[in-house]
Amino acid sequence: MIKSQTRLDIGAWSLGFIKFMRKDLQPLIAGLDIGSSAIRIAIGQIANRGDGEENSELQILGASSVPSAGVNKGVINSIEDVVSSVSACLEGAERMVGAPIDSAWVAISGLHIISQHSKGVVAVSKVDNEISEEDVRRAIEASRAIATPLNYEVLHVLPKYFTIDGQSNVKDPVGMTGIRLEVDSQIILGSSSQIKNLTKAVYRTGLEIEDLVLGILASADAVLTSRQKEIGVMVVNIGVATTSLVVFEEGEIIHTAILPVGSEHITNDIAIGLRTSIDIAEAVKIEHGDCTPGQISKREEIDLASLGSPEHEIIKKQYLSDIIEARVEEILHMVDQELIKIKRNALLPSGVVFTGSGAKLAGLIELTKKQLRLPAVLGYPLGVVSATDKVNDLSFSTAVGLVKWGGKIQAEGSSNTSKGGWGIGGVSRAGSRLKNWVKALIP
Predict the structure, then answer these.
(1) Residues 203, 151: one domain?
(2) Distance CA 89, CA 91 (A)
(3) In this predicted model, what pLDDT tens digit does every residue of 199-257 receive, in sequence order?
(4) Which residues pair with 212 in a beta bridge?
(5) What's the predicted TM-score (pTM) here?
(6) Domain, as residue range, for 26
(7) Neighbours of 26 (CB within 10 A)
(8) Do residues 120 and 97 both lie within one domain?
(9) How far apart are CA 160 and CA 254, in angstroms?
(10) For 38, 206, 235, 361, which has the most beta carbons within 10 A of its beta carbon?
């Protein structure tokens, strides 16, 4: 796709100046998160502080967000509205960094995402029976060949562990000796129509898609340490319309899920309980929301007129907190049910790490510790240097995670490396498979 000449002219000189002054910098990496309430873009670069990859750091140069249009519960229902929103967000980000953005890592989410378990089996190819990276790749590809539901496509292949001649729970089989290599994988699938709608909307803005990444995986990549992934942890991203979660243990992903509830359901409950408008309910939630009514004085009151209501209406803050607590308890109960499915309820030593716009609610951590019987913290991006405060905004975790994800792939030098438990490159092949199909439809 060719960008407009105007956008190229704006950043041409700045980009050349940046390259001249900072020859140690790698190309720009952009992460695009298309959410139900907002479109967010984060842009970063890998900067080398010395010799060797270990001396490199990820710098976030800019971040931009605009209200989202054409998206409902993570699903696109108007391509034209999405194109307009993404273009506006992209222009803001480009002005920030002073250079044009040509491609991006794009998050995909929504209730259409499903997961399946699969197993791949291959014979070791070398005469001396030493397992090579090619054998590992073939095993992962074999696990990818599953009977997918009608109109669904594979987004990620996430290997859990390998088995060599009956020896199970092998993490890295390369260099080991065996005849039969097996891999147990988790396959993440998405609706073909939704994938095509998303890629078509992004291509129409002039952006190339580096790859599609499941949003919760990008968020986890931003906020977790390898130690947390090893001993057991869950990341919960509370969005506007949905709540996503991923569970790690022994460094591998063991479960993912997307729940059909989010922070907008809390807002709706407040609007009904207080008999007020959605806008006032949202303002009340942001300014005074708390999900621990036991810690609020019965005397505390809120005047809705101070939040934009046309009439003076006094409500008890404890009553507001009761409404919020009921819905948050429901969300936490659904999260606990997912842990029960995999027999990990109350059994994750690193507990729960919350991120997403809905995680800003006061009292969430205390209520989670009580409901899930697990440690709980808010998750902010780790290992990232930035001059913008948006990096520490919980709602930007996915966009920053996409930049970090792209930086990791860039540092490895290949998107085909099957390391770190991320599957085949840890990213979707759907974007590249659909690129030509989408371009053929765009004038």
Answers:
(1) no
(2) 6
(3) 999 999 999 999 999 999 999 999 999 999 999 999 999 999 999 999 999 988 999 99
(4) 106
(5) 0.84
(6) 5-111+193-214+426-441
(7) 16
(8) no
(9) 7
(10) 235
